[in-house]
Design brief:
By secondary structure, the protein is an alpha+beta fold. Helices cover 30% and strands 30% of the residues.
Length: 164
């Protein structure tokens, strides 16, 4: 009877409870089929670990191109945070590049939650890219955060889609 209770307990734990407890190889390569640049190997420094892609340039008019990158951070054995960062260096192509960023964020969301995000989530995402007010959502016990940081120079900004 005791074993039946234990087995029942483990069968009832939803799969998303461990969604961000990804092994390094899985975390580092999670977006390889989406982004052109591929994840680098997991590195460990003083019990913290992480990996990321190189910045992938996006269509831009300026000398310094707008770009996007993916990162995973955690400890020596697992990833606890995933992040996609969009750097807008050329505001004339920002709308197109934000749509590309949103597409990548949607793919990451789908990989973790196993379904597309809701229309409400999409609308709130768009609001943050416009007004810069940080927003967060909790879906299946996973925290999703979107924030906008305007650079001190005023010549660009970054958007961060963070999953914890």
């Amino acid at each position: 009877m005791k074993y039946a209770l234990i087995l029942t307990f483990f069968l009832l734990i939803p799969p998303y409870a461990y969604a961000l407890d990804l092994v390094p190889l899985e975390a580092c390569t999670l977006m390889d089929d989406v982004l052109d640049s591929k994840g680098h190997p997991w590195r460990v420094d003083s019990n913290s670990g992480g990996c990321g892609t190189t910045y992938q340039n996006l269509p831009s008019q300026g000398v310094i191109k707008s770009n996007v990158a993916y990162y995973a951070n955690g400890d020596s054995s697992s990833a606890k945070q995933l992040k996609i960062i969009l750097n807008i260096n050329d505001t004339s192509t920002a709308d197109h590049n934000i749509q590309t960023f949103k597409h990548y964020c949607g793919k990451l969301y789908m990989k973790l939650i196993k379904k597309p995000w809701s229309m409400e989530f999409s609308k709130e995402f768009d609001k943050t890219t416009r007004d810069g007010i940080q927003r967060s959502w909790k879906v299946n016990e996973i925290d999703f955060i979107l924030l906008k940081k305007i650079w001190p120079t005023g010549k660009g900004y970054e958007l961060q889609f963070i999953v914890e």
